[in-house]
Write a structure and sequence with these properties.
heterodimer, A: 251 residues, alpha/beta, Rossmann fold, six-stranded mixed sheet, 9 helices, globular, B: 293 residues, mainly alpha
């Protein structure tokens, strides 16, 4: 099996009062092992909802998610545990993704302790993972409010890779950071892909970043996939009008 | 130059304000601790047996021997006020502990779980909140019969919804924060998320409210005892002591003034402490502290 993730006809609707909004409308795609797939589109196109559906943070309204060969459909607590062994996520707002009252090291340890590791061992491992992400051991004892956004995002990546996921979902992981820090984070993510052989699903709206480091691009618009291809294909010769608009607005 | 000076002045004023808040907090905390110690050590420090009757000494005005005078059975008022402090203060603390704990747990559960159970419990709490508190407590205490424990139960019945509402609102505010999702992705179960990630982040306002509530609860407990629905004679309790002295207000005012002043002083102290706790835990003050860093 060469695919880590395959979704087919994924559907999610939200009902508010009498109006029903279709956030994700029958989309299908797959991520191969070791591949980096980018999901691009404007705000409200349903990218983040896809991430929440894959990680079980939102329930499905239809379709299938096949994770490492097994179908996952509105998973229970036990199944979710398996999902979180395979999939981890890096959030958009780095500081908000850490409990303000818990030190960074403790937050990284949490995932390891939940896997059954002892406290002492988890502590050492947490420091190791922070180091992989370019943070010294002193960061383990700092609170989220005491570090910069970029450092916090590195800690967030450390927390995610500490569970050794096969698929890392980055939900706008760089959009809250300034340009130089963005580049550093992207380099770190590419390095992790090479060193640990993990697949990545980048949810992003910055086509320039996508072109740099992703193998394939999916363009989403109003809950549907409108175009797919390699970054160069999509950016240099977009087929859909929406993609053209998206490229024009950025370049 | 001028701007730097102005900033320096501003930083200094802010520091002085913060220092003042902390000084006030420690002052009131010390006073409350003294009050609690006096109440805790009451049996050891009372000058006379608060329950020993001596009709020859009945209704003596304050004198060097009996600093607060004696009541109509000749019992020493100072000893009774000190002993009554134990009953009144500790039952108020017990009551606040019960309603804070129970209300917070209910609020945490409802806020985190949501759905039909949440709506149902919240409607029940609406019913409790719809009645005027004291009237409802009198009714409950009336049904349960007199006695201090029953008064505590009656007041607990009507007071928990406040804390349930408060903590539920706080939970709803942070339930959808990314760090809760991150904790879930780290494999933490609901109980761990609620007690490790949600509770520590909502405890501040709950603590402030419960500290402020100690005074109120003390008044309400004393009120029920005053009406004869709380502590039963001869137990020394400030509310029932005031009730006993009611008929002698004109002739022997010390009998009602002594427990009255005791209630006044301790309620004021707990309220002042509550206020300073709020100032110390105020999220805005915290934010300012962070900005300074």
């Amino acid at each position: 099996m060469n695919r880590i993730l395959a979704v087919s006809n994924l559907k999610k609707t939200y009902t508010k009062g009498k109006t029903t909004i279709c956030a994700v409308d029958e989309i299908s795609f797959h991520v191969d092992k070791g591949e980096c797939l980018a999901l691009v589109g404007e705000s409200g196109s349903g990218k983040s909802t896809v991430a929440k559906l894959i990680t079980g943070l939102e329930s499905l309204d239809g379709g299938d998610i096949i994770l490492d060969g097994k179908v996952i459909k509105n998973p229970g607590r036990k199944e979710l545990k398996r999902v979180y062994q395979l999939v981890q996520m890096v959030f958009q707002m780095p500081v908000d993704s850490f409990n303000p009252r818990i030190r960074l090291g403790e937050s990284v340890m949490e995932g390891l302790i939940n896997q059954g590791m002892g406290r002492q061992e988890a502590k050492h491992k947490a420091i190791d993972y922070l180091e992989i992400c370019g943070l010294g051991p002193e960061f383990a004892s700092r609170y989220p409010s005491e570090v910069s956004g970029g450092e916090c995002q590195r800690a967030s990546i450390a927390r995610a890779i500490a569970r050794k996921p096969q698929l890392l979902i980055c939900d706008e992981a760089t959009s809250a950071l300034d340009v130089t820090v963005q580049a550093q984070i992207m380099t770190l993510l590419s390095q992790l892909r090479e060193d640990q052989g993990m697949s990545q699903l980048m949810i992003c709206h910055d086509l320039a970043l996508v072109q740099q480091c992703c193998d394939r691009v999916l363009v989403m618009h109003q809950g549907r996939v409108v175009e797919t291809g390699t970054p160069d294909e999509v950016i240099s010769s977009p087929r859909e009008a929406y993609t053209k608009k998206l490229i024009d607005s950025i370049l | 130059m001028e701007v730097t000076e102005r900033t320096a002045v501003r930083i200094r004023t802010r520091k002085i304000k913060k220092d003042q808040t902390m000084t006030k907090f420690y002052l009131f905390l010390t006073l409350v601790i003294i009050l609690l110690l006096v109440a805790a050590l009451a049996p050891q420090i009372v000058p006379y047996d608060p329950y020993a009757q001596d009709l020859t000494q009945a209704l003596q005005p304050p004198s060097p021997e009996h600093l607060l005078g004696t009541d109509r059975y000749g019992r020493d008022m100072l000893s009774r006020v000190i002993m009554g402090g134990q009953t009144t203060i500790y039952s108020a603390l017990l009551l606040v502990g019960i309603i804070t704990g129970f209300g917070t747990l209910v609020g945490l559960f409802c806020g985190y779980q949501g759905g039909k159970i949440d709506s149902l419990i919240m409607r029940v709490s609406d019913v409790f909140l719809a009645f005027p508190g004291m009237v409802f407590a009198i009714a409950v205490a009336g049904i349960l019969g007199g006695g201090l424990i029953n008064a505590v139960v009656a007041l607990a019945c009507i007071s928990w919804p406040k804390f349930a509402r408060l903590s539920r609102g706080q939970v709803l505010g942070i339930k959808n924060m990314p760090y809760i999702a991150a904790a879930r992705l780290s494999g933490s179960g609901s109980i761990k998320i609620v007690f490790k990630h949600i509770l520590p982040n909502i405890i501040g306002p709950i603590l402030v409210t419960s500290t402020l509530d100690i005074g109120t609860m003390m008044m309400e407990l004393a009120g029920l005892s005053f009406l004869g629905l709380g502590a039963m004679p001869p137990i020394a309790e400030w509310g029932s002591m005031m009730s006993e002295g009611r008929s002698m207000l004109q002739t022997s005012p010390w009998v009602i003034l002594a427990p009255g002043c005791a209630i006044f002083i301790s309620v004021t102290l707990f309220n002042l402490l509550g206020d300073t706790v709020r100032d110390v835990l105020d999220p805005k003050t915290n934010k300012r502290k962070k900005e300074k860093k």
